[in-house]
Specification:
This protein is of the alpha/beta class. It is built from 11 helices and 10 strands. The chain has an 8-stranded parallel beta barrel, surrounded by 9 helices. A two-stranded antiparallel ribbon has the order 5-6. β7, α7 and β8 form a beta-alpha-beta unit. It is globular, with a radius of gyration of 19 Å. It starts with a helix and ends with a helix. Bound molecules: sulfopyruvate and magnesium ion. Magnesium ion binds next to α3.
């Protein structure tokens, strides 16, 4: 158990210590509990934060990642995650919706003890950024998005809560210059960090953006999501000047593979007898909750 005001400020505290924060996704109480308890000999603190992904939450409920989930259902999942972890939470708020709605989201998240909200600069029907270019995804107007950031910053009560502006320029093929222009505008509007997103299979475009941007601004925290460019290591991310690395979907993907295989194997074998040693015991799962 951790009080909201202690949890909320814990992300800023880690960033102030110049630690690289690694955030693992969670989409349920169980996945949050797994993140909470994952530690290794070399990394006794485990993950530095939890990413509440819209993709994995929507997928685990059987919906597309199109900003369809009901806000109260998202808050129910958030409470499951809060109940099962003490780590700072970075909440994926998709586009943030209308400015008026974003203000309400900021207030609610801050009250619950979330540390940061990420909004992405797209408009229209939201599509997952890792999809191809069809259906077409559109960039939000810089001024409209900047105004949303300003309104969110004005709505928060503490200085702990962070608004992260997610830049989709590289995803949409608008290029490095557009990304830089947007980063400058969003930081001027009050963004506490920027997330530069990419669906490239190599680290090159993200590396170039960060190395160039660090010449303009050495302080602003930069967040990356190396889902497609998975050769990005934590060490490399730190070396090029990133501050937060989000592992945005790997737990859901791992469970999808494991569940699909188990379903097929039982169907093929007509029993689970030879498969029992391939799965956790019910006790393992019950222990996690105690
Ligand atoms: C998510 O995890 O929901 C994200 C990251 O927004 S991505 O799926 O790459 O768009
Ligand atoms: Mg998302």
């Amino acid at each position: 158990m951790i009080l909201p005001e202690i949890r909320r400020k814990s992300l800023r505290e880690k960033l102030q210590k110049k630690q690289l924060v690694t955030a693992m996704e969670a989409h349920s109480g169980l996945s949050a509990s797994i993140v909470e308890h994952t530690k290794t000999k070399d990394n006794p603190e485990g993950y530095g934060a939890i990413w509440m992904s819209s993709l994995t939450e929507s997928s685990s409920k059987g919906y597309p990642d199109s900003e369809y989930l009901n806000i109260n259902s998202r808050y129910d999942t958030l409470v499951e995650i809060l109940n099962n972890s003490t780590k700072p939470i970075i909440y994926d708020a998709d586009t943030g919706s209308f400015e008026e709605h974003f203000i309400l989201t900021v207030k609610k998240l801050e009250m619950l003890g979330v540390s940061a909200v990420v909004i992405e600069d797209k408009k229209g029907l939201k599509q997952n950024s890792l999809l191809g270019s069809s259906p077409k995804q559109q960039a939000e107007d810089i001024n409209v998005f900047s105004s949303k950031i300003k309104a969110g910053k004005a709505a928060q009560k503490s200085s702990d809560f962070m608004i992260v502006a997610r830049i989709e320029s590289l995803i949409l093929g608008a290029g490095q210059e557009d990304a830089t222009k947007r980063a400058n505008a969003y930081i001027a509007a009050g963004a506490d960090a920027i997330l530069i997103h990419s669906k490239s299979e190599t680290i090159d475009e993200v590396e170039k953006f960060i190395l160039d941007y660090r010449k303009i601004n050495s302080e602003i925290p930069i967040v990356i999501v190396p889902s497609t460019y998975d050769e990005m290591t934590n060490d490399k991310a730190k070396q090029i000047g990133a501050n937060i690395v989000i592992y945005a979907n790997q737990l859901l993907r791992a469970s999808f593979t494991a569940m699909s295989k188990m379903a097929t194997d039982i169907l093929e074998q007509g029993s689970s007898h030879k498969l029992t040693d391939k799965v956790a015991t019910c006790k393992d799962i019950i222990k996690l909750r105690n």
